Every structure is written in C-alpha cells, then in structure tokens.
Amino acid sequence: MHSKILLIYTGGTIGMMQSHSTGALKPFDFKHLKNEVPELQRLPVTLDSISFKHPIDSSNMHPSVWIELAEIIEKNYTKFDGFVILHGSDTMAYTASALSFMLENLAKPVVLTGSQLPIGIIRTDGKENLITAIEIAAAQKNKKPLVPGVAIYFEYELYRGNRTLKYNAAHFDAFKSPNYPVLAEAGVNIEYKTNYVRKASTKKLKVHKQLDNDILVLPLFPGISKKITSSILQTKGLKAIVLQTFGAGNAPTDKWFVDELSAAIKRGVIIYNVTQCLEGSVVQGKYETSAQLKQIGVISGEDITMEAAVTKLMFLLAQKLPAQKLKKMLSTSICGEMS
C-alpha cells in the first residue's frame, strides 16, 4: 500500500519556472507538479498538494505563517502518512524549529526542503531535493515512519529541523547541523541513522497556535555602545532577548553592561545566552567573562541554535508560564533542540 504524502508549497525558489518567452521566473501551478517533475510518477506514493494562495518569499516569513502551516498539518494529520513543506531556504531553519515546538507529540514526518536554483532551471538542485524529501517522508518500517518529527532535507542530507542553520548562500549544500549528527544520507541508497532519530510519540498530536514575538536578538561585538544597549533593553513591551555572546557564552565584564542586564532581568526580561559560534556550546561560568552572567540570572542556551532559541522563546512566552517554570523550560530540551 502506498504512503500518502501531502506536499505544501509556501513559496521560495524551488517553486519557480522560467518563462520560455521572457526568461522571467514565476511560480508554477502545483496542480501540474507531476508534469514538471515526471520522476514523481515513479515513486510508490500517493501525492496530494496544497499551495499557498499567495506564495511568499521566505524573507517575509512570519509567525502567522507558522500557525497556518501547523493548522494545515492538524487538519490533514489523519489523512496522510507524512508531509513535505516546500519553503525558501533563507528562513527554513526558523520554520523547522518553530514547527518542532508547535507540533507537540508529532509522530509523522514533516520534511522541509527547497532549492538554491528554481526547479525550472536545467541545473536545479530542486528536483533531487523534492523527490528524496518525499521518499523520506513516505519511508516506513513495520507500518511506522522511519523519521517522525520535523526535519530539513537538503543536498543529500536529512537534518533534525531544530538543530539546523543555513550557512551557505552560494552552494547547493546550504545547511549544516553543527551540534547534532545527520538523520539520513542519500547516496545510491538512503542510509537512515536510526540511533539519532527521536522515537515517535504515542500521545495524541497537540497543536499550539499561539506565539509571542515580543523578543529581540542582541549580537555582542567589541565596542558595543552603552546608550544603544540601554535603549534596547528598556524597549517597552520587550519580554526576552537572545544574547549572542562570544565563544562559550562570554561577554564584556564592564560594570555598566552587567548592571544593564541585571536591571532588565529584575524587570522581568528573559535573557537567553546563545553563542555566536556555529559549533560548540555556552558554558556559563567556565571563564570569568561569563561567570557574572550566571550570577545575575542570564539563562544558558547551551548548544541551541539561534534559530531554535528565537522560536523556542516565542513558543514558551505564549504559554504564559510562571517565571521559574519558563526559565526551567528554556534550560531543558523540549523536542531535541538541545543536547
């Protein structure tokens, strides 16, 4: 029996075709997807598709779109064995991270993919990404999915969605998962790394549809201004900051800087320490330059990506949790986003 897969097109490079007359790129009609990618007809899957009425560039991605995606999956969850989301690559890691939190108890594959070149270009990477993403979403053993959960497939590798970041704008291998192994590698065969795949939940899917984006990312740099930092930290309505620190979570020890952070924390602002490095982890207190952060109540993000940190804060802030529980959840892996 064929697996049933729902393809959801949000926008992005992969869904573009080149006009033969003008050379301009334009979205193609996904009702005719199998005409554009005839190889799909050879896959042992039953494929259906939904396309956003107004496809968006992923640079315009917004939490409201994540909610729309979660609702589409919720509505179709019992009808399909897996889902493939076609998405622009620029913010794909944010969307994958957000959905990993929003789709609690997810027991089916949700695979995001896209391309660096449009599917209508001869040298496109889109066809392989699309075909293999569908094959992975459909893969089962003993009638159970091989890779339940939210993942990203790009250029022969499958990554856990909330461990992924885009690191290259010029090459086909656009993504990395610096602190967690790949879930599968596609060569002559698809090799699944089952030891790194989270087990499917046996609980009923619970879809969270509230996100709070009253947050900010503050990257540190040598010479960061006191007046600008103070202005940012005192922004009206600010609930949380992802503090992008140096190395293993280090920051300036200037008294004004520590005092500003401390005052913000006392006002109830959550400060989440995430390293600027692509690999490695925050270890608050390892060096003198992070010991003060720990003392004033800055929360360590350990080895979480910036994308997962942003979406985790949006997700947890919307839960209206007591302060202590919120801080504990930020320090705890909810769905595999931290080691």
Our estimate of the beta-strand percent is 15-25%
Residue windows where pLDDT falls under 50 for at least 5 positions: none
In the CATH hierarchy, what is the class of the largest domain? Alpha Beta
What coarse outline follows from CA principal-axis ratios? globular
Q: What structural class do the secondary elements suggest?
A: alpha/beta
Number of helices: 9
Which CATH architecture of the largest domain is right? 3-Layer(aba) Sandwich
Mean pLDDT across residues:
92
Widest sheet, order of strands = 4-1-5-7-10-11-14-15
Give the helix level as a range of percent.
25-40%
Topology-level CATH name of the largest domain? Rossmann fold
Could you give the count of β-strands?
20
Run of helices and strands:
EEEHEHEHEEHEEEEEEEEEEHEHEHEHH
Rg (C-alpha, Å): 21 Å
CATH superfamily of the largest domain: L-asparaginase, N-terminal domain
Distance between the termini: 37 Å
Summarize the main sheet: 8 strands, mixed
Q: What is the number of domains?
A: 2
